[in-house]
Amino acid sequence: MANLDRYLYPQMSAQRIIPMILWPVSLLMVVHRSVFLGVNGDRTDDFKPVYAAAYNFLNNLPVYGENYDTVDPHYLYPPSGTLLMSPVAVIDYERARWAFIAVSVVALLICAYLLTRMFGYRLNSWVMPTVLFVFFFTESVSHTLIFTNFNSFVLLGMLAFLMLMRSRHDWWAGVPMGLTLAVKPVLAPLMLLPLLNRQWRVFAFAIIVPLVLTAVAWPLSVDAEDFIARTVPYLGEARDYYNSSIAGNGAYFGVDPWLILLLRIAFVAMAAFSLWFLYRYYRTTNELLWMTTSSGVLLCTTFLVGSLGQGYYSMLLFPLLMTVLLPGSAMRNWPAWLGVYGCMTFDSFYSERWTSFGWMVEYNKVTYGWSLLMIAVFCSLLFRWLDMRADGVADGQLRPAPTTARPAAEPRNTDDASLSLSK
Protein backbone atom coordinates (compact mmCIF):
# COMPACT_ATOMS: atom_id res chain seq x y z
CA MET A 1 0.00 0.00 0.00
CA ALA A 2 2.90 2.36 0.78
CA ASN A 3 3.93 2.27 -2.88
CA LEU A 4 0.52 3.69 -3.85
CA ASP A 5 0.94 6.86 -1.78
CA ARG A 6 2.69 8.75 -4.56
CA TYR A 7 -0.33 8.07 -6.80
CA LEU A 8 -3.05 8.60 -4.22
CA TYR A 9 -1.41 11.53 -2.42
CA PRO A 10 0.72 13.40 -4.98
CA GLN A 11 2.87 16.09 -3.37
CA MET A 12 2.35 19.69 -4.41
CA SER A 13 4.05 22.74 -2.93
CA ALA A 14 2.32 25.95 -1.94
CA GLN A 15 4.20 27.71 -4.77
CA ARG A 16 2.23 25.55 -7.22
CA ILE A 17 -1.09 25.52 -5.37
CA ILE A 18 -1.40 29.33 -5.03
CA PRO A 19 -1.05 30.07 -8.79
CA MET A 20 -3.39 27.17 -9.61
CA ILE A 21 -6.08 28.84 -7.47
CA LEU A 22 -5.45 32.52 -8.13
CA TRP A 23 -4.79 32.60 -11.89
CA PRO A 24 -8.32 31.58 -12.96
CA VAL A 25 -9.96 33.57 -10.16
CA SER A 26 -7.90 36.70 -10.93
CA LEU A 27 -8.52 36.56 -14.67
CA LEU A 28 -12.26 36.19 -14.15
CA MET A 29 -12.17 39.16 -11.77
CA VAL A 30 -10.44 41.18 -14.50
CA VAL A 31 -13.28 40.31 -16.90
CA HIS A 32 -15.95 41.06 -14.30
CA ARG A 33 -14.54 44.44 -13.23
CA SER A 34 -13.96 45.63 -16.82
CA VAL A 35 -16.50 44.02 -19.14
CA PHE A 36 -19.43 44.02 -16.73
CA LEU A 37 -18.96 46.60 -13.95
CA GLY A 38 -16.80 48.91 -16.06
CA VAL A 39 -19.07 48.98 -19.11
CA ASN A 40 -22.16 49.25 -16.88
CA GLY A 41 -20.71 52.32 -15.19
CA ASP A 42 -22.23 54.02 -12.16
CA ARG A 43 -23.72 57.30 -11.02
CA THR A 44 -20.27 58.89 -11.30
CA ASP A 45 -18.69 59.17 -14.75
CA ASP A 46 -15.21 60.69 -14.69
CA PHE A 47 -14.75 60.08 -18.41
CA LYS A 48 -17.64 62.26 -19.60
CA PRO A 49 -16.01 65.63 -18.70
CA VAL A 50 -12.69 64.39 -20.12
CA TYR A 51 -14.34 63.46 -23.40
CA ALA A 52 -16.20 66.79 -23.53
CA ALA A 53 -12.97 68.73 -22.88
CA ALA A 54 -11.11 66.72 -25.54
CA TYR A 55 -13.91 67.31 -28.05
CA ASN A 56 -13.97 71.05 -27.32
CA PHE A 57 -10.18 71.24 -27.58
CA LEU A 58 -10.17 69.58 -31.00
CA ASN A 59 -12.96 71.89 -32.19
CA ASN A 60 -11.50 75.15 -30.81
CA LEU A 61 -14.21 75.53 -28.18
CA PRO A 62 -13.81 76.63 -24.52
CA VAL A 63 -12.61 73.85 -22.20
CA TYR A 64 -12.66 75.45 -18.75
CA GLY A 65 -16.16 76.86 -18.58
CA GLU A 66 -17.75 74.46 -16.08
CA ASN A 67 -19.92 75.40 -13.12
CA TYR A 68 -17.89 74.33 -10.08
CA ASP A 69 -20.85 74.83 -7.74
CA THR A 70 -22.33 71.48 -8.78
CA VAL A 71 -21.27 68.09 -7.36
CA ASP A 72 -20.90 66.52 -10.82
CA PRO A 73 -17.42 65.37 -11.90
CA HIS A 74 -15.45 68.32 -13.27
CA TYR A 75 -12.66 68.57 -15.80
CA LEU A 76 -9.56 69.63 -13.85
CA TYR A 77 -6.63 68.68 -16.11
CA PRO A 78 -4.24 71.44 -17.25
CA PRO A 79 -3.84 72.33 -20.95
CA SER A 80 -0.94 69.86 -21.24
CA GLY A 81 -3.26 67.11 -20.04
CA THR A 82 -5.95 68.22 -22.47
CA LEU A 83 -3.44 67.90 -25.30
CA LEU A 84 -2.52 64.34 -24.28
CA MET A 85 -6.14 63.30 -23.75
CA SER A 86 -7.49 64.88 -26.95
CA PRO A 87 -7.25 61.68 -29.10
CA VAL A 88 -10.09 60.10 -27.08
CA ALA A 89 -12.58 62.40 -28.83
CA VAL A 90 -11.69 61.23 -32.32
CA ILE A 91 -14.43 58.57 -32.08
CA ASP A 92 -17.90 58.65 -30.52
CA TYR A 93 -18.30 58.77 -26.73
CA GLU A 94 -19.42 55.18 -26.08
CA ARG A 95 -16.71 53.52 -28.14
CA ALA A 96 -14.13 55.93 -26.71
CA ARG A 97 -15.13 54.98 -23.18
CA TRP A 98 -14.96 51.26 -23.91
CA ALA A 99 -11.55 51.70 -25.52
CA PHE A 100 -10.34 53.70 -22.52
CA ILE A 101 -11.46 50.92 -20.16
CA ALA A 102 -9.70 48.31 -22.30
CA VAL A 103 -6.43 50.27 -22.38
CA SER A 104 -6.73 50.88 -18.63
CA VAL A 105 -6.99 47.12 -18.03
CA VAL A 106 -3.89 46.53 -20.17
CA ALA A 107 -2.07 49.20 -18.15
CA LEU A 108 -3.09 47.48 -14.90
CA LEU A 109 -1.86 44.10 -16.14
CA ILE A 110 1.47 45.70 -17.01
CA CYS A 111 1.53 47.33 -13.56
CA ALA A 112 1.02 43.95 -11.89
CA TYR A 113 3.90 42.50 -13.89
CA LEU A 114 6.22 45.46 -13.20
CA LEU A 115 5.45 45.35 -9.49
CA THR A 116 6.20 41.63 -9.43
CA ARG A 117 9.50 42.12 -11.26
CA MET A 118 10.44 45.12 -9.12
CA PHE A 119 10.50 42.89 -6.07
CA GLY A 120 12.51 40.17 -7.77
CA TYR A 121 9.83 37.63 -8.70
CA ARG A 122 9.10 36.04 -12.07
CA LEU A 123 5.89 35.95 -14.08
CA ASN A 124 5.44 32.24 -13.28
CA SER A 125 5.85 32.72 -9.53
CA TRP A 126 3.02 32.73 -7.00
CA VAL A 127 3.45 36.49 -6.55
CA MET A 128 2.14 37.54 -9.98
CA PRO A 129 -1.38 36.05 -9.66
CA THR A 130 -1.49 37.22 -6.04
CA VAL A 131 -0.73 40.80 -7.06
CA LEU A 132 -3.31 40.60 -9.83
CA PHE A 133 -5.91 39.25 -7.42
CA VAL A 134 -5.23 42.02 -4.89
CA PHE A 135 -5.39 44.67 -7.64
CA PHE A 136 -8.86 43.76 -8.87
CA PHE A 137 -10.16 42.87 -5.43
CA THR A 138 -9.79 46.47 -4.25
CA GLU A 139 -12.23 49.36 -4.49
CA SER A 140 -9.40 51.48 -5.92
CA VAL A 141 -8.98 49.50 -9.12
CA SER A 142 -12.65 48.59 -9.42
CA HIS A 143 -13.88 52.18 -9.24
CA THR A 144 -11.06 53.38 -11.49
CA LEU A 145 -12.57 51.16 -14.19
CA ILE A 146 -16.21 51.77 -13.25
CA PHE A 147 -15.79 55.55 -13.13
CA THR A 148 -13.33 55.34 -16.09
CA ASN A 149 -10.59 57.40 -14.48
CA PHE A 150 -6.96 58.05 -15.46
CA ASN A 151 -5.51 56.43 -12.32
CA SER A 152 -4.32 53.25 -14.06
CA PHE A 153 -1.88 55.27 -16.14
CA VAL A 154 -0.72 57.22 -13.10
CA LEU A 155 0.17 53.94 -11.37
CA LEU A 156 1.95 52.75 -14.52
CA GLY A 157 3.94 55.99 -14.69
CA MET A 158 4.82 55.72 -11.01
CA LEU A 159 6.15 52.16 -11.32
CA ALA A 160 8.13 53.00 -14.46
CA PHE A 161 9.56 56.05 -12.68
CA LEU A 162 10.65 54.04 -9.62
CA MET A 163 12.16 51.18 -11.63
CA LEU A 164 14.06 53.43 -14.04
CA MET A 165 15.25 55.63 -11.22
CA ARG A 166 16.52 52.60 -9.28
CA SER A 167 18.33 51.23 -12.34
CA ARG A 168 19.96 54.68 -12.80
CA HIS A 169 18.34 55.42 -16.17
CA ASP A 170 17.92 58.98 -14.99
CA TRP A 171 16.84 60.68 -18.21
CA TRP A 172 14.29 57.99 -19.02
CA ALA A 173 12.96 57.98 -15.43
CA GLY A 174 11.88 61.58 -15.84
CA VAL A 175 9.70 60.79 -18.87
CA PRO A 176 6.89 58.74 -17.22
CA MET A 177 6.89 61.07 -14.24
CA GLY A 178 6.68 64.10 -16.53
CA LEU A 179 3.81 62.60 -18.51
CA THR A 180 1.76 61.90 -15.39
CA LEU A 181 2.46 65.39 -14.04
CA ALA A 182 1.29 66.85 -17.34
CA VAL A 183 -2.13 65.25 -16.88
CA LYS A 184 -2.63 64.71 -13.16
CA PRO A 185 0.06 65.98 -10.76
CA VAL A 186 -0.87 63.59 -7.95
CA LEU A 187 2.66 62.11 -8.03
CA ALA A 188 4.37 65.47 -7.54
CA PRO A 189 5.46 64.63 -3.93
CA LEU A 190 7.60 61.79 -5.30
CA MET A 191 9.89 64.36 -6.88
CA LEU A 192 11.52 64.52 -3.45
CA LEU A 193 13.04 61.05 -4.01
CA PRO A 194 15.45 61.94 -6.86
CA LEU A 195 16.40 65.09 -4.98
CA LEU A 196 17.29 63.13 -1.86
CA ASN A 197 19.11 60.54 -3.96
CA ARG A 198 20.98 63.26 -5.86
CA GLN A 199 19.67 62.12 -9.22
CA TRP A 200 19.30 65.61 -10.63
CA ARG A 201 18.62 64.54 -14.22
CA VAL A 202 15.48 62.67 -13.15
CA PHE A 203 14.14 65.79 -11.51
CA ALA A 204 15.10 68.02 -14.44
CA PHE A 205 13.47 65.90 -17.13
CA ALA A 206 10.31 65.36 -15.07
CA ILE A 207 9.88 69.14 -15.08
CA ILE A 208 10.87 69.67 -18.71
CA VAL A 209 8.30 67.23 -20.15
CA PRO A 210 5.15 68.96 -18.77
CA LEU A 211 6.62 72.39 -19.53
CA VAL A 212 7.16 71.47 -23.18
CA LEU A 213 3.66 69.96 -23.44
CA THR A 214 2.19 73.09 -21.84
CA ALA A 215 4.07 75.30 -24.30
CA VAL A 216 2.56 73.32 -27.18
CA ALA A 217 -0.96 73.11 -25.73
CA TRP A 218 -1.33 76.68 -24.49
CA PRO A 219 -1.69 78.45 -27.86
CA LEU A 220 -3.92 75.63 -29.14
CA SER A 221 -6.47 76.13 -26.34
CA VAL A 222 -8.92 79.02 -26.71
CA ASP A 223 -9.31 79.51 -22.94
CA ALA A 224 -6.06 78.29 -21.36
CA GLU A 225 -6.01 81.38 -19.13
CA ASP A 226 -9.22 80.17 -17.45
CA PHE A 227 -7.35 77.16 -16.11
CA ILE A 228 -5.26 79.56 -14.02
CA ALA A 229 -8.10 81.96 -13.25
CA ARG A 230 -10.89 79.45 -12.45
CA THR A 231 -9.63 75.87 -12.12
CA VAL A 232 -6.49 76.40 -10.02
CA PRO A 233 -8.37 78.28 -7.24
CA TYR A 234 -10.98 75.51 -7.21
CA LEU A 235 -8.23 72.87 -6.86
CA GLY A 236 -7.01 74.64 -3.74
CA GLU A 237 -10.39 74.36 -2.03
CA ALA A 238 -11.28 71.44 0.25
CA ARG A 239 -14.68 70.47 -1.10
CA ASP A 240 -17.06 68.67 1.25
CA TYR A 241 -18.17 65.90 -1.15
CA TYR A 242 -16.29 62.90 -2.61
CA ASN A 243 -13.30 63.97 -0.55
CA SER A 244 -11.62 61.69 2.00
CA SER A 245 -8.86 64.09 3.01
CA ILE A 246 -8.86 65.38 6.58
CA ALA A 247 -10.07 68.79 5.43
CA GLY A 248 -12.78 67.40 3.15
CA ASN A 249 -13.97 64.85 5.68
CA GLY A 250 -13.94 67.48 8.42
CA ALA A 251 -15.92 69.93 6.29
CA TYR A 252 -18.54 67.27 5.57
CA PHE A 253 -18.98 66.35 9.26
CA GLY A 254 -18.64 69.91 10.58
CA VAL A 255 -15.38 69.41 12.48
CA ASP A 256 -13.87 72.54 14.05
CA PRO A 257 -11.13 74.11 11.91
CA TRP A 258 -8.60 74.04 14.77
CA LEU A 259 -8.92 70.26 15.06
CA ILE A 260 -8.55 69.82 11.30
CA LEU A 261 -5.38 71.93 11.39
CA LEU A 262 -4.02 69.99 14.37
CA LEU A 263 -4.60 66.64 12.65
CA ARG A 264 -2.94 67.82 9.47
CA ILE A 265 0.11 69.04 11.39
CA ALA A 266 0.30 65.74 13.30
CA PHE A 267 0.36 63.65 10.12
CA VAL A 268 2.93 65.92 8.49
CA ALA A 269 5.12 65.49 11.59
CA MET A 270 4.73 61.69 11.44
CA ALA A 271 5.64 61.73 7.76
CA ALA A 272 8.69 63.93 8.39
CA PHE A 273 10.08 61.53 11.00
CA SER A 274 9.32 58.48 8.86
CA LEU A 275 11.04 59.99 5.81
CA TRP A 276 14.07 61.02 7.90
CA PHE A 277 14.42 57.54 9.43
CA LEU A 278 14.03 55.80 6.07
CA TYR A 279 16.55 58.12 4.41
CA ARG A 280 19.14 57.74 7.15
CA TYR A 281 19.02 54.00 7.70
CA TYR A 282 17.68 52.42 4.48
CA ARG A 283 18.69 54.55 1.49
CA THR A 284 22.19 53.08 1.21
CA THR A 285 21.44 49.63 2.64
CA ASN A 286 18.13 48.72 0.96
CA GLU A 287 17.24 51.20 -1.75
CA LEU A 288 14.13 49.30 -2.87
CA LEU A 289 12.67 49.37 0.64
CA TRP A 290 13.60 53.06 1.00
CA MET A 291 12.01 54.10 -2.32
CA THR A 292 8.79 52.12 -2.02
CA THR A 293 8.14 52.89 1.64
CA SER A 294 9.02 56.57 1.22
CA SER A 295 6.75 56.85 -1.81
CA GLY A 296 3.87 55.37 0.20
CA VAL A 297 4.49 57.75 3.11
CA LEU A 298 4.65 60.78 0.80
CA LEU A 299 1.49 59.90 -1.11
CA CYS A 300 -0.58 58.79 1.87
CA THR A 301 0.32 62.00 3.69
CA THR A 302 -0.65 64.04 0.63
CA PHE A 303 -4.01 62.27 0.42
CA LEU A 304 -4.68 63.08 4.08
CA VAL A 305 -3.42 66.65 4.44
CA GLY A 306 -4.06 67.93 0.90
CA SER A 307 -7.22 69.63 -0.30
CA LEU A 308 -8.48 66.58 -2.21
CA GLY A 309 -8.07 62.88 -1.42
CA GLN A 310 -10.27 60.39 -3.23
CA GLY A 311 -10.55 56.73 -2.29
CA TYR A 312 -9.28 55.33 -5.57
CA TYR A 313 -5.98 57.19 -5.10
CA SER A 314 -5.15 54.31 -2.74
CA MET A 315 -4.02 52.19 -5.70
CA LEU A 316 -0.85 54.30 -5.73
CA LEU A 317 0.05 52.68 -2.39
CA PHE A 318 0.52 49.23 -3.97
CA PRO A 319 4.35 49.49 -3.90
CA LEU A 320 4.18 50.21 -0.16
CA LEU A 321 2.00 47.14 0.35
CA MET A 322 4.46 44.97 -1.58
CA THR A 323 7.23 45.80 0.89
CA VAL A 324 5.66 43.24 3.23
CA LEU A 325 7.76 40.72 1.26
CA LEU A 326 10.98 42.46 2.34
CA PRO A 327 12.78 42.11 5.69
CA GLY A 328 12.49 45.35 7.62
CA SER A 329 9.15 46.32 6.09
CA ALA A 330 7.01 48.67 8.16
CA MET A 331 3.99 46.77 6.80
CA ARG A 332 4.64 43.66 8.90
CA ASN A 333 2.00 44.39 11.51
CA TRP A 334 -1.76 43.90 11.64
CA PRO A 335 -2.84 47.55 12.22
CA ALA A 336 -1.24 48.52 8.91
CA TRP A 337 -3.36 45.94 7.09
CA LEU A 338 -6.46 46.99 8.96
CA GLY A 339 -5.76 50.44 7.52
CA VAL A 340 -5.29 48.91 4.06
CA TYR A 341 -8.69 47.27 4.38
CA GLY A 342 -10.26 50.61 5.28
CA CYS A 343 -8.88 52.55 2.32
CA MET A 344 -9.10 49.78 -0.29
CA THR A 345 -12.11 47.63 0.55
CA PHE A 346 -14.90 47.24 -1.99
CA ASP A 347 -17.29 46.43 0.86
CA SER A 348 -20.19 48.77 1.53
CA PHE A 349 -21.28 49.57 5.09
CA TYR A 350 -24.67 51.10 4.44
CA SER A 351 -27.19 49.53 6.80
CA GLU A 352 -30.98 49.51 6.75
CA ARG A 353 -31.17 48.72 10.47
CA TRP A 354 -28.34 50.93 11.77
CA THR A 355 -28.65 53.72 9.21
CA SER A 356 -26.64 56.45 10.94
CA PHE A 357 -23.83 54.15 12.08
CA GLY A 358 -23.48 52.50 8.67
CA TRP A 359 -23.50 55.87 6.93
CA MET A 360 -20.78 57.16 9.29
CA VAL A 361 -18.56 54.09 8.74
CA GLU A 362 -19.01 54.23 4.97
CA TYR A 363 -18.07 57.91 4.74
CA ASN A 364 -15.09 57.58 7.10
CA LYS A 365 -13.56 54.25 6.07
CA VAL A 366 -11.04 55.68 3.59
CA THR A 367 -9.93 58.52 5.86
CA TYR A 368 -9.60 56.17 8.82
CA GLY A 369 -7.78 53.64 6.64
CA TRP A 370 -5.17 56.14 5.45
CA SER A 371 -4.78 57.46 8.98
CA LEU A 372 -4.28 54.03 10.54
CA LEU A 373 -1.84 53.03 7.82
CA MET A 374 0.25 56.16 8.44
CA ILE A 375 0.16 55.68 12.21
CA ALA A 376 1.19 52.01 11.91
CA VAL A 377 4.16 52.80 9.64
CA PHE A 378 5.22 55.70 11.87
CA CYS A 379 5.03 53.66 15.08
CA SER A 380 6.92 50.75 13.53
CA LEU A 381 9.79 53.04 12.53
CA LEU A 382 9.67 55.06 15.75
CA PHE A 383 9.99 51.96 17.95
CA ARG A 384 13.00 50.82 15.92
CA TRP A 385 14.67 54.17 16.45
CA LEU A 386 13.91 54.15 20.18
CA ASP A 387 15.40 50.66 20.50
CA MET A 388 18.48 51.71 18.54
CA ARG A 389 18.94 54.80 20.67
CA ALA A 390 18.48 52.82 23.89
CA ASP A 391 21.17 50.37 22.75
CA GLY A 392 23.50 53.16 21.64
CA VAL A 393 23.51 52.29 17.95
CA ALA A 394 21.32 55.09 16.60
CA ASP A 395 24.42 56.96 15.44
CA GLY A 396 25.98 53.85 13.97
CA GLN A 397 28.41 53.33 16.85
CA LEU A 398 28.01 51.05 19.84
CA ARG A 399 27.96 52.71 23.23
CA PRO A 400 30.74 51.60 25.64
CA ALA A 401 29.69 48.64 27.73
CA PRO A 402 28.37 49.60 31.20
CA THR A 403 30.66 48.96 34.19
CA THR A 404 27.89 47.35 36.23
CA ALA A 405 26.19 44.26 34.93
CA ARG A 406 22.49 44.51 34.24
CA PRO A 407 20.03 42.38 32.27
CA ALA A 408 20.05 43.17 28.58
CA ALA A 409 16.93 44.98 27.43
CA GLU A 410 14.72 42.81 25.29
CA PRO A 411 14.23 44.58 21.96
CA ARG A 412 10.74 45.35 20.82
CA ASN A 413 9.47 43.15 18.06
CA THR A 414 8.34 45.74 15.52
CA ASP A 415 6.89 43.02 13.34
CA ASP A 416 4.34 42.26 16.05
CA ALA A 417 2.01 45.23 16.18
CA SER A 418 0.10 43.83 19.13
CA LEU A 419 3.31 44.25 21.10
CA SER A 420 4.68 47.34 19.39
CA LEU A 421 1.60 49.54 19.50
CA SER A 422 0.91 48.76 23.10
CA LYS A 423 4.20 50.29 24.28
From TrEMBL:
Q: Which family does it belong to?
A: Belongs to the glycosyltransferase 87 family.
Compartments where located:
Cell membrane
- The record's region (Disordered) falls at 398-423
- Pfam families this protein is in? GT87
Question: What Gene Ontology molecular-function terms does this entry list?
Answer: transferase activity
- Segments spanning the bilayer are 21-39, 98-115, 145-165, 200-220, 258-279, 366-386
- Where are stretches of biased composition, namely Low complexity? 399-411
InterPro entries, per this entry?
GT87
A GO CC term attached to the entry: plasma membrane
Which keywords fit this entry according to its UniProt record?
Answer: Cell membrane, Membrane, Transferase, Transmembrane, Transmembrane helix
Q: What name goes with this protein?
A: Protein of uncharacterized function (DUF2029)
Species of provenance: Gordonia paraffinivorans
Keyword field contains Manganese: no
Q: What topology does the record note for this protein and the membrane?
A: Multi-pass membrane protein
